[in-house]
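#struct-pred
JK: can someone run the complex with manganese (II) ion? inputs below
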Amino acid sequence: MGAPQPGKATPLACRQPGQENTIVSVGDVRFGDNKVVLIGGPCSVEDHDQMINTASYVAAAGGSMLRGGAWKPRTNPYDFQGLGPEGLELLAEARRVSGLPVVTEVLDPRDVELVAESADMLQIGSRSVQNFPLLREVGASGKPVLLKRGMMTTVNEWLSSAEYVLASGGADLVFCERGIRTFETALRNTLDIGSVAVLKDTTHLPVIVDPSHASGDVRYVAALARAAVAAGADGLLVETHYSPGQARSDAAQSLDPAQFAGLAESCRAVALAVGRDL
Ligand code: PEP
Ligand code: MN
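RT: done, structure tokens with the ligand placed:
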């Protein structure tokens, strides 16, 4: 209970007295700098044209990184599980064409080496936040890591998960708040904006927000994104699909290209209002 104790159980993740913010670089993208980093892309990597097309409209809207799942952690084992290695190739191809660095989830410790060879940043999903062997493996890979908050983890537990990555040799870690489970069911999850404020104070590492999994509903994604930027988030991870009705996962929360551009524009206005840019 209570605010994290800097430097006690999590000395690498927490800010030491006087320690400046750490900037995490992924290619030319800098998390924790003045510019709020917008990452866009589909929930699942589906095919070549989808990824090339998405990379192009994400960049045009001001996005500086591409997301997309090659392995999907689905609740039901019969749901689409992702394209696996083929998805990694499609992400790499989209990066070649667009120049945007890519972030993708790694689910299995046995896949870390393969994913690290082609992705620029490794995402640890909510359901894996306490998969300690996986955290050690991604830390040892030396790649930048995007660590989602678990839907049932406290801020202190989340910090401990980050500590696993950092203690295993990883230096570049970005936290991603994506909503937690509460009694509220109006949205898919409850976005904990307070965790952004706490982490920006407690840690030296960047913190971004995923308003897509937090809301689960396309109608509310942009509002949560604006709240995140106003609260001091260093970036946004947003799901978008060129044709949301055809998305193979998370269609209900996927913005179409125009909605994605609208989100970017309104979040840029908030960023400027709080002395940042997007
Ligand atoms: C995702 O970003 O595609 C994802 C599965 O998110 P989460 O782990 O937050 O549910
Ligand atoms: Mn998703």
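RT: quick notes.
The first strand starts at residue 24 and ends at 26.
DSSP finds nine helices and ten strands in the chain.
JK: thanks, will look after standup
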